[in-house]
Amino acid sequence: MDLELDDEALAFRDEVRAWLAANVPDPPLPSMDTEEGFLRHREWERHLADARFSVVTWPERYTGRAASLLQWVLFEEEYYAAGAPGRVGQNGLFLLAPTLFAHGTQEQRDRLLPAMARGEQVWAQAWSEPEAGSDLAAIRSTAVRTDGGWKLSGQKTWSSRAAFADKGFGLFRSDQQAHRHRGLTYAMFDLRAEGVSIRPIAQLDGDPGFAEIFLDEVFVPDHDIIGEPGEGWRVAMSTANNERGLSLRSPGRFLATAERLRKLWKERGDAADTSTQDRVVDAWIRARAYQLYTFTTLTRLSEGESLGPESSVTKLFWSRLDTAMQETALDLLGPESELSGEAAVESGKWADGYLFSLAGPIYGGTDQIQRNIIGERILGLPKEPEVDKGVPFSEVRVS
Ligand SMILES: Cc1cc2nc3c(=O)[nH]c(=O)nc-3n(C[C@H](O)[C@H](O)[C@H](O)COP(=O)(O)OP(=O)(O)OC[C@H]3O[C@@H](n4cnc5c(N)ncnc54)[C@H](O)[C@@H]3O)c2cc1C
User: Fold this and answer.
1) Among the atoms of ligand 1, which is closest to the Cα of residue 365?
2) Interhelix angle 251-268/274-302, nearest 10 degrees
3) Can you give the pLDDT at residue 3?
4) Does any ligand 1 atom lie closer than 6 A to the CB of residue 94?
5) Which residue ranges of the chain lie beneath pLDDT 50?
6) Residue 137, class by beta-carbon neighbours within 10 Å (0-12 exposed, 13-18 middle, 19+ buried)?
7) Does ligand 1 come within 6 angstroms of the Cβ of 170?
């Protein structure tokens, strides 16, 4: 691709920059993992959608601008550089929506996307279970056929923002006899439906950023199944590739952190401390490398290719980069890094960022799992032994 931006891209970037300069809340919104913060972030989503900046790549009929992926990358760069609020709707916008575009029906897209874009319906990802995290195919929650739909039962866990969200999407075992990667069905459900109980879980910072979801014969109509029943694994893998490879963590996020780190070094760094200086420079170079690599991905996508196992390389790269940058900042701040609130540098944003970066090597598939995928599917190394090859799920022992 041509790295010189054309007039259209430059005009778009200027429009985004000007709008953000006039609209980004100051002081920043409270944490979206609190009830008040969640509501304020929901309002922010509506505000973004009114300006048609919520989902720039979506078609205009769904509140988007039909913008190119390059424009999306530019939007994200401006968004993070401006210190704009985190996206409370991100699991719907960046995980479920791409899945609906690829595997959903027209009726589902028409019904669900506008409310998602405006933050009127915030979605929680309900994939993980107590015995199914890395080994997602070990899912035990069930979908049982009933008149006009399915009944969902089981327990989901670590569901981000489910404590306050409206809807959930997840995988359910609909065929006990099938091989465990088959017999899974991808369903959407209402978090306030009869039979759903939500139990919030506090994260490291004490806020209920997660929840457990208990489902007891929760009815979902047929029109809330994505793809064919039993085809949920295939549908889910396209969601996972999006999450790891592009949509969840754009380069803008890391470029903005690298720039904050550079400024911190200018203010706090000791020129004699070449080791820390090297870490700052290394972070800046890696953030820029990630941006350029993303341009390669965009070029491939625009030529009709899709994201595959290389998404694991991307995920591994950004999760390590984020932790390295936050750690370098804490080292620069020294004992001050432990301060929070008004007294702290940037109101404690570095300490918060550090704590959250520790989750990067876990969510979206752990670093070890990404390495397994890279080893097996890119480098062609021998596969991990499959405990259950060809065995129906009902006969598999999950320890
Ligand atoms: C901040 C955050 C947000 C999250 N949000 C959501 C969400 O919204 N929805 C959702 O469904 N889930 C969510 N998760 C859950 C996340 O997807 C899981 O935590 C993750 O997939 C790991 O699963 P687990 O916790 O069960 O760990 P386990 O799978 O039990 O893994 C434990 C350890 O063993 C290692 N391990 C496991 N299997 C292998 C193997 N085959 N080879 C090598 N090492 C292995 C892992 O890498 C890890 O270090 C979130 C997690 C975090 C931290």
Assistant:
1) 21
2) 160
3) 83
4) no
5) 389-399
6) buried
7) no
* Residues linked to residue 211 through DSSP beta bridges, in sequence order: 200
Q: Which residues are catalytic?
A: 243
Closest CA to 225 of 160, 177, 170: 170
Residue type, 353: G
- Quote the ligand 1 centre to 182 CA distance (angstroms): 21
Structure tokens at 235: 């549908």
**Contact between residue 313 and residue 365 where contact means Cβ atoms under 8 Å apart:** no
Q: CA 19, CA 290: separation in Å to the nearest integer?
A: 26
Cβ of 123 closer than 6 Å to ligand 1, yes or no, is no
The string of pLDDT tens digits covering residues 17-44 is 999 999 999 999 999 999 999 999 999 9
Burial class of residue 174, CB neighbours in 10 A (0-12, 13-18, 19+): buried
- The pLDDT assigned to 398 comes to 33
* Predicted pLDDT of residue 393: 45
In sequence order, which residues have a C-beta less than 8 Å from that of residue 165 and are 6 or more positions away?
A: 122, 123, 124, 191
Residue 142 φ then ψ, to 5°: -115, 155
CB of 277 sitting under 6 A from ligand 1: no
Residue 34: CA atoms inside 13 Å, Cβ hemisphere, count? 9
Could you tell which of 134, 161, 316, 386 is best to mutate to test the pocket of ligand 1, judged by most ligand atoms within 8 Å of the CB?
A: 134
Q: Which atom of ligand 1 is nearest to the CA of 367?
A: 47
Could you tell me which residues come within 8 angstroms of residue 380 by beta carbon, excluding any fewer than 6 positions away? none
Neighbouring residues of 46: CB distance < 8 A, sequence distance ≥ 6: 118, 119, 120
Q: Does the model's pTM come out above 0.85? A: yes
Atom 2, ligand 1: residue with shortest CA distance: 363
User: What is the model's pLDDT at position 78?
Assistant: 98
The pLDDT of residue 158 is 97
**For ligand 1, what atom is nearest to the CA of residue 91?**
8
How far does residue 383's CA lie from ligand 1's centre (Å)? 20
CA-368 nearest atom, ligand 1: 47
**Ligand 1 geometric centre to CA of 136 (Å):** 9
* pLDDT at residue 246, rounded to an integer: 73
Spatial distance between the Cα atoms of 119 and 266, rounded to a whole number of angstroms:
39
